[in-house]
């Protein structure tokens, strides 16, 4: 038998750095790994010698790398991936990209730029990644307890000025309008390539403190938009990574209000889509707490509306109504012009129509059909024609309320209006809402109007 070739191993410096950061001894880490493994039904018997071998570059087999990452993550109080511990072994190279709320500005730049590169170069892997449940809530904790970055100015690379920041803002606005009209399937590749080819260079450039803060704020908005577009193209695992990085960029910008928006408008809605109602409420409350006194009533209304969604999905009608009333009161203050200052650009869109849309979701989930129908109609009445995707979703909400009221023929008619509108878009979110409507119509599947609706949907999908 031929001798097995010797392979020179490289010391695992990543693991060494994390062990030092965690303040663990080799024996202490081995003990934690064994305990963590036992919780997963594994009989692991590692000791300090095992850890020493890992540090010399040995790759443990099976589920061990994931258990080691989990054990270190518990000690550090954050998510740790197998990439971070240097045990990806040439596989899943992008698995941990974008999941960390970096403790430093430099780390944040490196992480978000790597996310953009990975998205462009290895999109198939990232788009298939699942959502890490703990990483929905952990960044909100980091954001709550992390102090503002003392300095973001850089003195390396090409000079970045206010005109560069304005260009990013203008591009974000233009891409947002295109997304509203045509859906993310048409627009998202442009956003990602712009981030990777242009914006990454700006972050790596040279800028004064004030310009740097503005740059991070602008890039945070565009990164959040790319995350939302990932949702709309059916990539929730990828969206999660963009949202975490948008939250970190908002922190670098010193914008607590926008950080709260990312939690309440983005991450909590992702939790809603994934069916995690407790996380919805937790994220919205984190937004309220972390941005307290730093946002206008319009933003407060949005934060409360997001929390109400979580309580509604939990079936808690009483708490939903309490929080929804707070949202409506905040909106009344906003409409009365009682803002402490002008609304920032990122919340100006959230008016009465958007609040009604959020409340329509709440009432639908609570089975309060009349209230859901009323709120859905109010939303549709206030939404401009240019918000095609939002109007389509509003029509599906209205149809769902009509199903709950057993107005099946009217529901199918309303649903077809949504189908026609979604035919002009490339939107996975819209398709998911239609799937939900079909499920709600299932008890009435023998009725001719329901069969016709189903047939027209099949033609539309063909």
Descriptive overview:
Strands 1-2 form a two-stranded antiparallel ribbon. The termini are far apart. The model is unreliable at 1-8 and 90-94 (pLDDT under 50). The longest helix is centred in the middle third of the chain and has 24 residues, at 209-232. It has helices at residues 13-22, 26-39, 48-55, 64-76, 105-121, 123-127, 134-145, 162-182, 184-203, 209-232, 236-253, 256-273, 277-290, 297-313, 317-335, 352-366, 369-382, 388-404, 408-422, 428-441, 448-461, and strands at 154-155, 206-207. Helix 2 (26-39) crosses helix 3 and helix 10 runs parallel beside helix 12 (256-273). It is globular, with a radius of gyration of 24 Å. It is 69% helix and 1% strand. By secondary structure, it is mainly alpha-helical.
Task: Summarize the model shown.
This protein has 462 residues and is mostly helical. It is 69% helix and 1% strand. The chain has helices at residues 13-22, 26-39, 48-55, 64-76, 105-121, 123-127, 134-145, 162-182, 184-203, 209-232, 236-253, 256-273, 277-290, 297-313, 317-335, 352-366, 369-382, 388-404, 408-422, 428-441, 448-461, and strands spanning 154-155, 206-207.
């Amino acid at each position: 038998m031929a001798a097995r070739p010797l392979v020179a191993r490289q010391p695992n410096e990543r693991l060494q750095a994390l062990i030092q950061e965690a303040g663990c001894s080799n024996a202490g880490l081995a003990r934690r790994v064994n305990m963590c493994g036992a919780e997963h039904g594994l009989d692991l018997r590692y000791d300090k010698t095992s850890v020493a071998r890992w540090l010399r570059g040995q790759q443990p087999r099976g589920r061990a790398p994931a258990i080691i990452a989990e054990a270190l993550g518990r000690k550090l109080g954050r998510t740790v991936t197998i990439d971070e511990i240097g045990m990806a072994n040439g596989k899943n190279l992008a698995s941990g990209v974008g999941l960390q709320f970096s403790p430093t500005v430099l780390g944040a730049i490196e992480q978000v730029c790597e996310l953009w590169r990975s998205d462009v170069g290895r999109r198939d892997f990232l788009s298939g990644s699942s959502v890490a449940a703990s990483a929905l809530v952990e960044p909100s904790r980091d954001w709550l307890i992390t102090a503002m970055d003392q300095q973001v100015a850089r003195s390396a690379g090409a000079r970045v000025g206010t005109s560069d920041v304005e260009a990013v803002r203008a591009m974000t606005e233009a891409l947002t309008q295109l997304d509203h009209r045509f859906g993310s399937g048409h627009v998202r590749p442009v956003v990602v390539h712009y981030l990777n080819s242009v914006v990454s260079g700006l972050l790596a450039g040279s800028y004064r403190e004030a310009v740097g803060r503005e740059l991070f704020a602008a890039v945070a908005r565009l990164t959040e938009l790319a995350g939302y577009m990932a949702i709309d193209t059916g990539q929730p695992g990828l969206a999660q990574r963009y949202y975490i990085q948008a939250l970190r960029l908002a922190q670098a910008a010193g914008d607590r209000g926008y950080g709260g928006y990312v939690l309440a408008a983005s991450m909590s809605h992702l939790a809603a889509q994934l069916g995690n109602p407790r996380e919805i409420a937790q994220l919205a409350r984190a937004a309220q707490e972390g941005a307290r006194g730093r946002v206008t009533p319009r933003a407060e209304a949005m934060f409360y509306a997001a929390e109400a969604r979580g309580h509604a999905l939990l079936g808690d009608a009483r708490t939903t109504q309490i929080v929804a009333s707070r949202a409506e009161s905040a909106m009344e203050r906003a409409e009365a012009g009682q803002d402490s200052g002008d609304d920032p650009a990122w919340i100006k869109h959230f008016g009465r129509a958007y609040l009604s849309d959020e409340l329509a979701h709440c009432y639908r989930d609570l089975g309060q059909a009349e209230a859901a129908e009323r709120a859905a109609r109010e939303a549709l009445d206030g939404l401009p024609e240019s918000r095609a995707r939002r109007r389509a979703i509003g029509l599906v909400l209205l149809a769902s309320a009509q199903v709950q009221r057993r107005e099946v023929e009217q529901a199918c008619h309303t649903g077809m209006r949504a189908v026609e509108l979604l035919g002009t878009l490339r939107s996975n979110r819209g398709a998911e809402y239609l799937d939900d409507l079909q499920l709600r119509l299932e008890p009435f599947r023998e009725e001719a109007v329901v069969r016709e609706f189903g047939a027209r949907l099949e033609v539309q999908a063909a």
